[in-house]
Design brief:
With 210 residues, chain A is mainly α. Chain A contains six helices and one strand; from the N terminus they run H-E-H-H-H-H-H. Chain A has one domain: Up-down Bundle (Four Helix Bundle (Hemerythrin (Met), subunit A)). In chain A, helix 2 packs antiparallel against helix 5, helix 3 runs antiparallel to helix 4 and helix 5 packs antiparallel against helix 6. The longest helix of chain A has 32 residues. In chain B, strand 5 and strand 6 form a beta hairpin. In chain B, the strands form two sheets. In chain B, strands 2-4-3 form a three-stranded antiparallel β-sheet, with no helix packed on it. A two-stranded antiparallel sheet of chain B has the order 5-6. Chain B is mostly helical. The chains are: A mainly alpha (210), B mainly alpha (659).
Chain lengths: 210, 659
């Protein structure tokens, strides 16, 4: 890889490493260090779900007899949660737009709405767990409760992020000139919602497809 | 997507030439770590953190080495009863766990933490506080794992911890739980460290440090870090699932209830094989960067070595099954993964030929560091060939779980990790401390280690071919393994003596070594443009880079170049802690980054996490809940937007600034 002419600045320019004004601090941009850090965090957390889903299908493929052993799970709770998650993603998207339009109150309202939807989702997941047997009822149950449990753990972290961002936004910390934290938190929430979709596809849809 | 630039603060950064003492004093005040306990706990200086990583990793190397010596005493002759079978299991397990997890990777993190900002022409990593966190968690998880030793119930199922022996039925004590929770804990450190390296690579490089000019150490660490982001979740998840199996009666790995023991092996080696490359690629980078200095010429085949580094890791994700050839995997999968395991030799061989060509085409200056690097190349070839052999399925079926595999793993890991690491310390010790290491003692050091290593580990190939299984605590005289084992034990003690000579050399050179100066080896890369040891701010002005060897430009292709790297003239950036962020590929100035100061948050976050893992081990659920709340509060305090860092609107007064 030879240094091409475009990479090497001309000799007369080499003395001036930066001659234009540069933004100071982490700018409100998808290129901020915080956003990059969040994207790589999401990458590694998404990998956890990848391995969980691998474990699910690996165990399913080597199962003796029916899979799931007690027949396909009902779709009621799972579909409700899927819809709640998608609507909450819309609320966060609204907040993201509002903060860039310099409307912190609207942004806080969007974040708080997503927080509320997430709490409802958490409660419904609790109902779903109560309706099902314990961890110890075989490999399928172990997988079902662990996959939903890992998702809930990520959901709880997301709720913490939404709560902190709502509070900080209400305190006037963020606006059009400083929207990066809201956008970074939004990225995490989109990941939680995407994971919900993946979990739904694995646990609820795939048994109906085979 | 676009935001109005006028809305956020901006300025034209001042560029100055040969900054005076007043400027240096001001930068020193801005960047120094406060003295006292608060500074010790709160520092975010990547150089201090790097040295801590190195020292802690060497402490674990000594611990793991002493465990190995105890093992070798037990195996020195047939039917010896120095160590009970139970204690022997704990010793070989902790030896493996220590070396694989607490020495080999952290020691490379130490080099990279210390060197990256210096190599890249920056003042710090992208996330200085995350850097501190990754060290504290490494330390805490290491102490957590070792605490098991003090109650006599250390992990005892080998470093890859296969079920069913690790299941509750066969291993009822807490031994395996220490391992499972300890590895999950350590995984947090590896993950945050890896994110930090990747983002640092994308952001905090000097202007002109485009990706075709990155030192190979940076390529190696970057590759290992990206791989860790994909690999570590596999082992963390496997550990979580096994912990649930053991503590809560799930049946992921229990075939009686629909689970599969092989799932553990798949998840472990999906992590484990990329991990082996994470342990060697940065070390190969150390050699690729330091060897050319002693050969007085640039590395041959830079682009091929850089791309080979990345290619090795990509292949490395497709070869995990070669640890499982003997488990009854379908033939087609065996053939495919065997082929992948053999093909992976190609990019490694490219690097070997590049090093040989660099020595061949250079004018080598024989120093201790040079000898360590040459020794590394030889051991790498031997370890590579034995790995190539076991990549073939029929050979593997014969050799699996014998001492041949033990010989292979030690040639690979001692050869490609320990030799470059110690050579790297000889090379960078002057930069770390301002003093040279003793060359005469160094020769004794390198030859003792090289002879001791080969005397100890080469015979293991033969004991393996003779059928001696790994991990047996003793053997009978009729097996015919006695003499070879005695030779191995003698070799291992000679090797340990070599490591001791190294430690002695470090101790005496710290006090009495010759004063080094900025660039004692006349080396080409940016870290040697700073004083030894470097000041807290690294570079008084941010350099501008025009080639891969900024300090050798005067003598290399002097006629062709129209542009020169700028070392003494560059961006000052002294409005508080600041460094420059550049674009990902071409490294053009992009943003002036405000960098955080010292912070207590990483330390207290680690304390809260350590309490959490102790509580999980003890089933102390109230403590676990409290520790989780503590974790959340520490993170909240850490992330609370600071005005000084531009993390909140300048006009914010506590009430919404706009309707």
């Amino acid at each position: 890889m030879a240094d091409s002419a475009t990479l090497a600045p001309p000799a007369d320019r080499a003395l001036e490493p930066a001659e234009r004004a540069l933004p100071v601090g982490t700018v409100s941009d998808v290129r901020s260090s915080g956003m990059l850090g969040m994207l790589f965090l999401i990458l590694t957390e998404a990998t956890i779900f990848g391995y969980l889903i691998f474990g699910y299908f690996y165990t399913a493929a080597s199962a003796q007899g029916a899979w799931p052993p007690q027949g396909s799970p009902g779709l009621g709770y799972a579909l409700t949660n899927l819809v709640l998650a998608l609507v909450s993603a819309g609320a966060v998207w609204w907040a993201d737009r509002a903060i860039r339009a310099d409307q912190p109150r609207s942004a806080a309202a969007g974040l708080a709405a997503a927080l509320f939807l997430g709490l409802v989702l958490l409660g419904i997941q609790g109902l779903d767990w109560r309706a099902h047997a314990s961890l110890t009822a075989g490999a399928y149950r172990s997988l079902y409760l662990t996959i939903t449990g890992v998702h809930v753990a990520h959901l709880v972290v997301g709720l913490g992020i939404l709560a902190a961002l709502s509070g900080w936004t209400l305190r006037g910390y963020f606006g059009a000139a400083r929207s990066a934290p809201v956008r970074i938190g939004a990225a995490y929430w989109y990941f939680v919602v995407a994971a919900e979709v993946a979990v739904f596809a694995t646990l609820s849809l795939s048994p109906h497809l085979s | 997507m676009a935001h109005s630039p006028a809305a956020s603060p901006a300025r034209i950064p001042e560029a100055i030439e040969r900054p005076g003492q007043d400027v240096l004093d001001r930068l020193e005040r801005i960047w120094r770590t406060e003295p006292g306990l608060l500074g010790v706990v709160g520092t975010v200086d990547h150089k201090i953190i790097g040295i801590r990583y190195l020292v802690t990793a060497f402490a674990f190397l000594i611990a793991g080495g002493l465990e190995a010596l105890a093992i070798r005493l037990q195996l020195a002759g047939p039917d010896r009863a120095l160590i009970s079978p139970q204690a022997y299991n704990q010793l070989f397990t902790m030896h493996g766990v220590t070396m694989m997890f607490l020495y080999a990777f952290p020691v490379l993190s130490g080099f990279s933490n210390y060197l990256w900002p210096l190599l890249l022409g920056s003042r710090d990593m992208a996330f200085p506080r995350l850097n501190a966190l990754s060290y504290w968690i490494f330390l805490a998880s290491g102490l957590f794992l070792y605490a098991s030793f003090f109650i006599g119930q250390a992990p005892d199922d080998g470093w890859f911890n296969y079920v069913p022996y690790a299941s509750k039925v066969y291993n009822a004590g807490p031994n395996i739980d220490w391992y499972l929770l300890g590895l999950i804990f350590l995984g947090i450190s590896t993950t945050v460290g890896s994110v930090n390296f990747v983002v640092t690579l994308m952001r905090t490089r000097a202007p002109g440090m485009s990706i075709n000019r990155l030192p190979i150490l940076v390529w190696g660490t970057m590759t290992a870090s990206v791989a860790n982001l994909f690999a570590v979740p596999a082992v963390s998840l496997a550990c979580l699932l096994l912990w649930l199996d053991r503590q809560f009666g799930t049946t992921f790995f229990d075939p009686r209830d629909g689970g599969s023991p092989l799932l553990w092996q798949h998840l472990f080696w999906m992590f484990g094989h990329p991990w082996v490359y994470a342990l060697v690629l940065p070390a190969m980078g150390i050699v690729s960067d330091a060897l050319p200095t002693f050969c007085r010429r640039p590395l041959v085949g830079y682009t091929l070595v850089a791309l080979g580094t990345v290619a090795t890791m990509i292949f490395g994700f497709g070869v995990w099954v070669h640890h499982m050839f003997a488990t009854g995997i379908p033939d087609l999968a065996l053939s495919f993964l065997s082929a992948a395991s053999i093909v992976i030799a190609v990019p490694s061989a490219v690097a070997v030929f590049a090093w040989i060509a660099t020595i061949w085409g250079g004018r080598p200056v024989v120093t201790t560091a040079f000898l360590f690097f040459v020794g590394f190349v030889l051991l790498f070839v031997i370890g590579g060939v034995s790995g190539f052999m076991t990549g073939s399925v029929p050979v593997d079926w014969q050799l699996t779980d014998t001492y041949f595999v033990v010989a292979h793993i030690h040639y690979v890991l001692v050869g490609i990790n320990v030799f470059p690491v110690i050579g790297g310390i000889y090379y960078w010790f002057p930069k770390f401390t301002g003093r040279m290491m003793n060359e005469r003692l160094g020769r004794w050091n390198v030859w003792t280690m090289f002879v001791g290593f080969n005397l100890g580990f080469f015979p293991m190939h033969i004991t393996g071919l003779m059928g001696m299984p790994r991990r047996i605590y003793t053997y009978g005289p009729e097996m015919g393994w006695t003499n070879l084992n005695l030779v191995t034990t003698i070799g291992s003690f000679l090797f340990a003596l070599g490591v001791l000579l190294f430690l002695v050399n470090v101790a005496i050179s710290l006090r009495g070594g010759a004063v080094a100066g900025d660039n004692p080896w006349d080396a080409p890369t940016l870290e040697w443009a700073t004083p030894s040891p470097p000041p807290p701010y690294n570079f008084a002005v941010i350099p501008t880079v025009a080639s891969r060897h900024p300090l050798w430009e005067d003598r290399l292709d002097a006629d062709e170049r129209t542009d020169r790297s700028q070392i003494d003239r560059g961006l000052l950036l002294d409005h508080g802690r600041e460094t420059i962020a550049t674009t990902v590929l071409d490294a053009e100035p992009d943003v002036i980054l405000k960098m955080p100061g010292d912070s207590q948050a990483p330390f207290w976050l680690t304390v809260a996490l350590a309490l959490l893992f102790v509580a999980l081990l003890l089933h102390a659920w109230w403590l676990a809940g409290a520790a989780m709340i503590g974790t959340g509060l520490a993170i909240l305090a850490w992330l609370w937007p600071e005005r000084g860092l531009g993390q909140r609107l300048a006009a914010a007064t506590g009430a919404p600034a706009h309707g």
